[in-house]
Amino acid sequence: MLGKMVSESQRDWDSKLFLVMAAYRATPHDSTGFTPNKLFLGRELRMPIDVLMDLPPERDDMHTTPHEYLEKLQDNAAEAYRLAREKLRACAQRRKHHYDLIVKSEQFKAGEWVYYHYPRRFKSKSFKWQKSYTGPYLIVRLIEPVNCVLQRSPKSKPFVAHFDKLKRCEASTPVSWVSVDAQ
Fold first, then answer.
1. Distance CA 125, CA 158 (A)
2. pTM of the predicted protein model
3. What pLDDT, in 10s, does the model give residues 30-89?
4. Is 167 buried (19+), middle (13-18) or exposed (0-12) by CB count in 10 A?
5. Most buried in the list 66, 103, 139, 145, measured by CB within 10 Å?
């Protein structure tokens, strides 16, 4: 939002920040269904245009005692938090469902050869042209349910890796040094 309001030189961002934040705080979020103002303050704030046009505030607590106002504010905040938690839970389940549709969990066995995802960034080299995988590594043993121990050679130090960082090696591989009984 801030990027749309600053000038081309981008030197006036600090003078626009309060306007952007006011707009952000007054916008309902899809994940909660409420504005940050409603969740944090328990009510919606009046916009400058409301004050300029002398619109009456949308409050039914104008003639209550401070104690009644505080009690009503606490009840409204508790209800808003309850509804926001329900909506966040539903959004999280929907995101999990969509993620589960895309992800394909791969099962590995001890004795298989894999490549390990280990992206590195080098100065003055484009990241997209660099190799992200190293290896091949031998899966020495499994640590259920999603980890395994990898080793590059019989004398190298073994390390633990998550299955999500592995890719099956389809190329020709070295001879395994792990005995079949140890697997």
1. 30
2. 0.46
3. 888 888 888 888 778 877 777 888 777 666 556 678 788 788 888 888 888 899 899 999
4. middle
5. 139
